[in-house]
Protein: FAD dependent oxidoreductase
Amino acid sequence: MLNPADDAFLARLAGRLPPGSLTAPEPRHLTEPRGRRQGQAGALALPRDTAEVAAIVAACAAARVGIVPLGGGTGLVGGQVMETGPLPLLLSLERMNRVRGIFPEENVILVEAGAILAEVQAAAEAAGRMFPLWLASEGSCRIGGNLASNAGGTAVLRYGNARDLCLGLEAVLPDGSVFHGLKRLRKDNTGYDLRNLLIGAEGTLGIITAASLKLVRPPAAEGAALLAVRDPAAALELLGRAQRRLGPLVTGFELMHRQGFAFLAETMPERRLPFADLPDWTVLVDLGLTEGMDPAAELEALFAEAAEAGLVSDGALAQSLAQRADFWALRESIPEANRRIGAIASHDISLPLSEIARFVTEAGAAIGRLGDLRVNCFGHLGDGNLHYNVFPAAGRRREAYDDLRGEITRTVHDLVAAAGGSISAEHGIGRLKVEDLERYGDPAKLRAMRALKAALDPFGIMNPGAVLRAE
Amino acid sequence: MLNPADDAFLARLAGRLPPGSLTAPEPRHLTEPRGRRQGQAGALALPRDTAEVAAIVAACAAARVGIVPLGGGTGLVGGQVMETGPLPLLLSLERMNRVRGIFPEENVILVEAGAILAEVQAAAEAAGRMFPLWLASEGSCRIGGNLASNAGGTAVLRYGNARDLCLGLEAVLPDGSVFHGLKRLRKDNTGYDLRNLLIGAEGTLGIITAASLKLVRPPAAEGAALLAVRDPAAALELLGRAQRRLGPLVTGFELMHRQGFAFLAETMPERRLPFADLPDWTVLVDLGLTEGMDPAAELEALFAEAAEAGLVSDGALAQSLAQRADFWALRESIPEANRRIGAIASHDISLPLSEIARFVTEAGAAIGRLGDLRVNCFGHLGDGNLHYNVFPAAGRRREAYDDLRGEITRTVHDLVAAAGGSISAEHGIGRLKVEDLERYGDPAKLRAMRALKAALDPFGIMNPGAVLRAE
Structure:
């Protein structure tokens, strides 16, 4: 059982740290983007370096005090907000935001965990490189949180998720020891993969303090198109044709349902799809080409082939990088439109690619049977990752559906599980999905997870109650 | 302490398995490719399905009997050969070699762990896809071993290593339970990354029984060139230029020292470099292009640019796919030539790319100070992975250097560690490098590894003495 971060503990801890290291949390440290959870804490620790993180963790381990690590606070599953239990210590990495080194000739950057994603991207760009983790929250999320939650985003199809972009980690383990694994190596088979165990563990097995990240050379030319397709099956066939033509040069392939554009028209009328008629489904395809290739020509050829095959009925090719940015802004505005409309239930799911079309049909029918609801389904089709969000009928309030929320989520997740999918594709488990994980997770994996947690964090101090139920 | 797989235990185990499941091991089950280690075993188990593997593991756990899992037996660090300790049970996956399913439209294949790598490649090819793990041993290694050791090879630069090509696993954990994680998903953030923990654990945390693997579409056109370069620094600059021109379409980038070609001339005179004068260093660059691109034109343009910049002094462009295969055969023959010459010590190392040139110079000087020795340095330069092998002077036998072997390896590994490199880039730890890992590994990581091992395999039955010293 944990002890609270009470005044006596905080006074002892303060004595071991430089002045100003412990403070009262601000409201931003105690909530999450959708405003649905309110955290609690004894204090906020703001370490300046890895040694201070280690000292804090060691003190918490000795006193059996829980720690909630904080990145940018943009997570959508409550991993950063502890609402109940003995008062924890919040530990924000925000002061540890330096770029420790950049090695353009190696395509590597070393950054501290508190660096904001957009700053990592900017540092890479200044060195003629690109850090290809693209998230809507990149202006405020921090790289430590991106790694702890194995963030995904819109370029996973080409570059992989946060896990795939990480070469090495420095982390403070739950006993206060420091794992010095900040390697700049592409290959390193020296023992168990502690790096990947910490990535995606959402701060429950240790605190990531710095990372060695992969950079890439920016493509020589980029382009994008919006293409109107009949249905998800046609979108998938289009993806196959794009990859047959262009292989790894297809950077993004996003699917959007007309409901999303209807929400945009209602909440942000300045954001408009460049089609005369709103299609049922729209795809945003993004290319990053090599020297001498012409994005417009490649996109036109793809459009012609797909139109000939009856896959696309309309299309708009970006005529400039500015227009490409507009296309992406359209896509990136959909989550904000969703927030303004107010979802009853949101689902971050993934499916085997060949199960998607059937899932969309079956889930639509099942949701229809539950009541008068609207569905906005969009996402990273190339990765099989859909955001399947359910909304009130027009003119009704989400509160009117409070009784239905559990059944909606259960309906969606049951269909996902039956199709061999995942109930959390990129957002993680946090505290929101602990019960879902218990219900849908593989029993042997869950037992192994509990054993791993007990082995590395025997007192359960690291982000208590996230991912796994607190003992 | 473990018990031996004695007659009483084997009789009990046989009673729970179909006839023919337990047999005496053949010589191939008790040795390794270099013939330097001789294993021992109570018996060989040949399970036909996952349930039988689970029954065997549960019986061993109950009786505290060690298990050595076997794939194709091609590992180079003794992970498959237990020379001492209580007689273990060998468990070969060779009867579990089915393709369970192939999903070309998803770019996924499901295979059992005993499938030979070349058979996985052939199954992918028959479906119009490619499984891009390319190893010299692909005709005999098995995919379970490839994953257990996180195999690398010659296409890691583009496609990643075995870890990066695996979407999901089925595995029997040390308590005999089955982890059903055979997902066909690109994104799945539901809890700790058990998949990556098992990959690279060399059979010490469980037995991989099946895998869900990524496939890719084969490139529309392929080509290769051999280019003579001054030194590793020039080779790296050439790589940077190739990637600036072609981004992810550079599939392989191999570096070879003239010593390797001298060994070829001595042992396989039919394999000849197509240059009039033997250069100090040669690069094999391999491209996989998209539709409409011409390999010869791209390679010529790269050669012209590199020659203009003074990076390459000679070159041969493959004029056909057959000639490309010849170039690769040249590269792939070097390990066999090395075996025929007989290395005193082999090192599978990786370095940060920008440390390679200095390492090669310093290591060459340090080895020169140790005695009259020859060095053959070659490898996957794009990944920073060198095979740095040390040989007797011409006319001398390797046995004459037995007293020097430890010092040679210590010298090489000390330089690698000082440069932030790895003492095992792609071969793993096995039993050969357990002491090296203890010497060079991060102490916090080693403690965490021991805790993870104890948590998942409390009796230490899984591949005892591999990766971590047996208790």
